Protein 1
Amino acid sequence: MLPFVNMSGDPKQEYFSDGLTEELLNSLARINELQVAGRTSSFYFKGKDVDLGTVAHKLNVAAVLEGSVRRSAHTVRITAQLINAVTGFHLWSQTYDRDLGDVLKLQSEIADAVAGALKVTLLGDTVAKIELGGTHNPDAFDAYLRAEKAYRAVRSARSDQDAIAAYTKAIHLDPGYALAFAGRSLALGEIAGEFTNEPADVRPTFQKAEADAQRAIELAPELAEGHLALAGALFFGSLDFTRGIEQYERAVALAPGNTQILRIYGRTAVQMGRTEAGIAASRQAVVLDPLSARSHDELGQALFYARRHEEGLAALKDAITLEPGYERAYGFAGLHYYALGNLQSARASGEVCPENYRCQLCLALTYKKLNRHTDAEAAVTKLTTLGGDTLAYQYAEIYTQWGDTARALQWLETAMRLRDPGLASLKTDPLMDPVRREPRFQAIERELKFPE
């Protein structure tokens, strides 16, 4: 599916045409009988003059859905057409004029028409599945699309806060809007896990995320996004890995074509020791969203915890090729190089993004191995500036690799006291191998109650 073109004559309405495209894409992805390319890959071609045959080849699809959106004060006109990517012939086309309050129903109409044109036999109540968790309130839908735009923007505390404000507005306008609760939960979880520098603020933010996720599931028990949000809050907020992985698995079962769910489940499953299931999910995310740097990056992370470093490097190089500014990929690429003993490449990769904590972690380890002790200490100081005690687990990794077992275990105990989300990595983290036989380490591992 390609992004629908904004025909409203107002560039400020781009969020609406893009958001509606994404909602339609999600609707199609909920039909298990269809294989739908993921959002990032679909939007990769926005504004580019590329023939449909090339699009289909890069996305590994047989048909392409494209169209346009024209929005007025109270109505919307959507023109959609489905094209056979091999022959170029139209399989189906239709123009819809609807009130803005009918957009949710329109999504299911279009999805049903596309499935029919592709001669797919739908099983079960597809309409109910597509409309699950949505809203018939046009103002709430508009706020939700604005929230999604902010959440999908460059990852930052500011964009997440903007998303939370818009999700909150959507919920205020429609208190039964389950997708908005799930979206707000995910944004809160990201702030807690990625952008909170005060340890005392992490747990309360995760608690808010968990409450929103629970509310989403109460409103729509079969909503995969609700279970995904709850999984993250349990896994990284409560460090309840058993219930967390169960919720991830529930989300995958409900939406096996959702690339966001697949890639997050893939990495966490490997961290829990469910290696083959996790890597399979991560690879499926890449198949469905091949032009997404994040999908390749998450696969590279999963392969790090699986200790498959050559494969992991290949995945991360793909991520960097797709998006040279994707900082996280450089940090994990550096860690793969470090694990392989290629210290100069590890150093070069880590030095690309000095403001990224993963890159500084890589440099702290690599400089020490290169006997650049002052630079290694400077990398730890930089980490302290970037995250303070919220990076307690990363300090434990560093001192473990430096051979300072006492300080490593001290930081692990600090991580436990602060309920550091980084502890989710402990079970399979290669960097922690030197201290695994230490009684204090084993006591912490038992206390975390990892699933079998």
Protein 2
Amino acid sequence: MEQPLMSVILAAGEGRRMHSSLPKALIPLCGLTLLDWALLALKQAGSDMPALAVVGHGQAQLKAHYGESLKFCEQTVLGTGGALLASLSLLNETGRIFVLASDMPLIKPSTLLALAKPDCDAAFAVTSLLPGDNRSRVVKNEEGALTALADADTVFVSYSPKEVKAAAYCFYAPVLMDALKELSARPGLSELSMSALMNFLLSSGAKLKTVAVEPDEALDVNDRAELAKAGALLRARINTKHMLNGVTLLDPMAAYIDETVKLGRDCTIYPGVVLEGNTVVGEGTTLYPGCRLVNSNIGKFCKAQAVVALDAVVGDNVTLGPFVNLRPGTRIKDFCKVGNYIEVKNSVVGEGSKLPHLSYIGDGDVGKRVNIGCGSVFVNYDGYKKHRTTIGDDVFIGCNSSLVAPVSVGSRSYTAAGSVITEDVPEDTLAIARAKQVNKVGYVAKLRSKRSGDKA
């Protein structure tokens, strides 16, 4: 195959049926934007040069999102063929050029490779004609050779089209350049469809071929219903890839895993798990129902149930949950236990430490083998600024202790249950910071007697 030198992505559509403040090309789907899916397919097909995006509506947002990773040009002539006219001065004059719509996230690299074979001047994908499809009809003669592309509302008398054109193309660059130059010279040209461009190439004697794909692969996303359909199909692909690489998904239809997620072998994913962004899950880890991990790294041989983690890092052999919230900046080291109803924020928890239940660890540095008793709180905010709490190794924090930052507890020290620690605790020290208990014998009996008299 002659190596394609360039890729053009048609990304000027407004996507009105999406009813979004984003241009359609930036709509998210399974961890990528719609435009990202086109770029991924092109890269996997061997087109590694920076793509050229033809933009219109929302171009400022697109340029801000992609920066210098893409080249941009603005569409001035209406129609998909008009988008190519806008790129005329930026196209390479040799090799082959992919042209791909930004709203076809299911197109496969293998299809692009088939389009790029050097046995024709231009090629495009076609798929079966289904009821309600308004894409251009593919017209062929009795021998099955392509003769024309017709609008969806064309009335055929003795011919019944069976295929429609999909928005994936590959052109031999000199042929495309010559056609675009001749068409652009036509006076008063205000709109050019891709079908009109193809028909012009046919009439000029160019050799065109079609590559058949399944309807699902040719799905173009125009509204939220089609977005959901595309998402389901992409999730099936993503989940199948992980299962073939040694991951167990107990119910693949109920696991929501972004394209960008990495899973180690022998992971087990239960139903109701959501893995987003650049999340990495290590070998042998089990994620039970209710886990949502976003841009987080979970180590090997962990067990997590009903855990929400955002920008968090968890070591190996850690037990999490149920009902744990790991906020940004959290670092949980190896062999820790983080039990039920625990929130950790911007804190480091040392190896082998335990946070069994009902605690808030905010802006803290916790040493090794520490036990944080039930109901303990790192009081990190004074109403103006956040402050840090530092806990040494082998510390025991008694139940319902409040550590008022900035404060430190030295290694091997204890805090008594119910203490409010406002001063640093030295090493090997028991800190007691609570009022002395007073027992008033007989008080309750007197209180009952008084209340009985009041009722009488």
Protein 3
Amino acid sequence: MADWVGASSEELTAAYARQDVSPVTVAEALFDYAARRDVALGAVRVLSREAALESAAASERRWRRHAPQSPLDGVPVMLREDIAVPSYANEVEGVSPVVARLLEAGCIILGKTVMAAHDSLVAGRCIEGRLVQNPWQPALTSGGSSCGAAVACAAGYAPLHIGIDRIGSARLPAAFCGVFGFKPTQGRVPLGKPSTGRVAAPITRSVHDAAALMNILVRPDDRDFTSLPPESLEYRMRVDGLSPKSLSVAVLTDMGLGPAVDPVIRQTVQEAARLLQMAGASVEMIDSFLAPEMFESVQILLEADAHLDLQAMSEQERMRLPSFVTDWAGQRADALTGQQIMQAWRDITAMRAAINEAMMGYDYLLMPVSPVMPWAATSLSPGNDPAGGLPHVVFTAPWNFAEHPAASLNWRHGADGVPIGLQVVGHRFDDLGVLRLSRTLEIMRPEQAAWPQ
């Protein structure tokens, strides 16, 4: 692995320990590779070569003394552009708890990846209107809103990436780009500016790398009022070895709302379920828990929240947004009454109760990430219609509002090379369990295509 592009975190740290390569050499190789590759892909917001190489040199000195700060010391990582980092070109005030944990661990922050113009609504297009190309199939969308992280991960810019997942905005691009995306329980990974359903999400090429990231990200931080109490779990060392024989798995392939589930996606989920059943798991199909008014209320709250965001922007900032966003956010928000907003929150509470009831008696839920395959890159949503901008998040958004851990795992590739993923959902706080089942499925899945070059 002469240039170290595509190396996992464990391959890198093992090489550091043997003195086969230094963090500086790895960082320089990845900078050169990302700069060259990103001319076409457009996943990077900023690369910070000087600061990163300074951190890499410090890591190299620690490895020479056999005194790394953590098992991820010297491992390169990239962050979504709205995660605050010191001394970067587009930093916001303060430093995110996520960044504090990474720096404490000795990770090398190479830079920031772009995000789509607004959460999962505008897929694969950043604020400047530039397309963020899917490395598997440039004619198809890379998803949103953590499209830059998913694209950079699939392309091999760094082994570790952190996005933000609010309504599926890390899991959807992870599925479309064939990588692993993990949405933890709300509060498991503290954020500097927490809000309902918004979580920091590891995006990696493997479950092992995501578990290693979780080891350092889960430390509590008082700046996040949703931050969960400390836990003594060791994610990476416990992620292997789950026996399906002890599991009860529910399978949901039709939510009854939103776009019809693509037959290829349905077959993918069913194939994974069959393999779990053959390995001894108890597997049972279940009906949808999601009533129409529940998902409608999800959309009402998202529209109202986006409308407030737009009102707080300057005219110049609003002008930068695609009209798709402003049309969607403003289509009914001004006319909403307090009674309608309160009813929407009651419907969300009812949805959480329905989810709880649906999962009783089951350890995990297996389902699609998206009901549809990646659509044309030039379209901002499956129908390219602001009035129907969100139906494709019907399998992802409920878990943000219900605060459950959920993961997107690539299962196979279609005949045209397009990734086809599935979603694993667990009970609240069972983050390790979702990672363990994801790892079991990662081992079971068909042979994967070579990473796009």
Protein 4
Amino acid sequence: MRVLVAGATGYIGSRLVPRLVDAGHTVRCLARDPGKLRDQPWAGDVEVVRGDVLDRASLDPAMAGVDVVHYLVHSLASRGFAATDRRAAATVAAAAADAGVRRLVYLGGLHPPATAGLSDHLASRTEVGRIFLDGPVPAVVLQAGVVIGSGSASFEMLRYLTERLPVSVTPRWVHTRTQPIAIRDVLAYLVAATTLPDEPNRTFDIGGPEVLTYADMMRGYARVAGLPRRVIAPVPLLTPWLSAQWVNLVTPVPRSIAVPLIESLEHEAVCTEDDLRDLLPGPVDPTPYERAVELALARMRDGEVESHWSAASPAGAPSDPLPSDPSWSGGSVRVDERSVRCDVPPERLWRVVEGIGGQNGWYSFPLAWAVRGWADRLAGGVGLRRGRRDPARLHLGEALDWWRVEAIEPGRLLRLRAEMKVPGSAWLELSVTPDGDGSVYGQRAVFVPRGLTGQVYWWMLWPFHGVIFGGMARNIIRTAAR
């Protein structure tokens, strides 16, 4: 089959692509910025085309000759996401029909049979599925609940809440029933949906073998992780909005994502049928919940997390790529630039540069970085706790604490773009240049202020630049010299 994957840079999509290739399919990936897929280990096995699900003109050539389209796009964290998703789904459905596509495959959300009163998040995913089902191209709409896998937003929220809170004061949604599913099973069902016999045009519920409450899931996680039994005290007065503020502070999941996730947990998410398994060519053995947790923790422990929830960014997000030099703005650009010659071989210096952030920290004034991270979380931003997916390697487009990797030239240059709440746009660029028996370490912090607030912000922090940026340069070189 010739398959187009829309959403190949996201958590599910970037894992699905290599499995489709392994299944013998010819895969084409649609991406707004193809460069974000450059460092994927499977990049050489697929075709990558530039396109946007909101841009019909870019979809026509992308769908030419395609048999099946996997649609794995959801603009959860952006304002007005329901309208954006509605327009994108309608655009994709029309383009698929005109291109002669034989099947659409969509991963939606598991929800109660009655759709009235659903959260905005679930209602939007349900609406997208309905648009595809009502369109001219047969659609397979898989509906999943909480996905358990290393790097998923749902799993990260569960993990941090359980690990950091031995005693939890919880809202009523922790006692709502759900049917969690392992990421490996989700991917297996998606691959199978590509070649289902006949032309089904319907929804299929998919889930794991157990029906659990969120409290059951927290206790199960604690057992697998070797933690003491968690005490969970229900407080019905806690609203989803209040719960999201707490999740924003305790976990790496920012408020913009926590709110719709928690609102969706208010609804029971239990499979009402298991018809898909009857259509599969071979037997399927769903992964038990605690086994899924074991697999996720093992992946994290071994540094083999394939993808992370923070990797994808919606259209218009601050992480979208900009020209390499911010002077494009035509306004004032504030720069702190430093260059230091050292006797450290360039390859050793680069290892420290590429390993920056996450558990390794930022090599200067840790308290200042921590305070700024907490302030960003309180303002609804991403903060510092997104960490890094791999302890030693960075890839184009992935998240690194409150930054996004905007450019990386191995051994030479790393450019990060800030995603924290800030009155303007900010970059941090680190470079390594060979120089005889040593290296020249380059460091450039760039800020494009927005209005008077941005100017005041820069000058308020200016007295600390020597400590923060000067200390960073000295400590990176000192670490590399050890």
